[in-house]
Amino acid sequence: MKPWGCIVGLPLVMLALVLVLFGILFIIAATDSAATDPGSRLGVGACLIVVALVFLGVAGATMYGGYRSAQAEKKTEIVQRVELAGDMSTEQLKCKACGAVLGKDSIEVKAGAAVISCPYCGTTYHLEEQPKW
Ligand SMILES: [Zn+2]
Asked: Same domain, yes or no, for 60 and 97?
């Protein structure tokens, strides 16, 4: 699955920002005492900002959805890797703080990332590199 959130969401956010900018300009123009028709300018400005907020909402929802699916994919990948580790020797995985040999139970998946919790020294850190077990 492609991260649709980034493809659809970012142009929408930019469009919304442009609309907000124009909306603010219209409202500023409406407050100008020399304005010939401040009421309609205020209306246009308010409409632009409302439309921009709708765009932002849609973009936010799309991006959040994309983020969620990306996180889910990542998580699945790590779980598969951890499961793979279970079939192989886990003796190569050592705590980077104290050097103690860690078992499969020391690996936790939190927020889509593999986290190592050393039971010997209490160190907790993210598994950033490709594990060499
Ligand atoms: Zn340790």
From this structure: no
d(CA 13, CA 2): 19
Determine the straight-line distance between the first and last CA of the chain, rounded to whole angstroms.
Answer: 29
- Residues 61 and 102 placed together within one structural domain of the fold: no
Q: Say if 133 falls within a structural domain.
A: no
- Residue 41 and residue 56 in contact, taking contact as beta carbons nearer than 8 Å: no
Same domain, 14 and 73: yes
| Residues 114, 127: Cα–Cα separation, whole Å | 5
CA 73–ligand 1 middle distance (angstroms): 29
Per residue in 2-31, pLDDT (tens digit) is 555 567 778 888 888 999 999 998 888 888
Q: How far is the CA of 108 from the centre of ligand 1 (A)?
A: 15
Enter the pTM of the model: 0.44
Q: Tokens 């005492």 appear where? A: 33
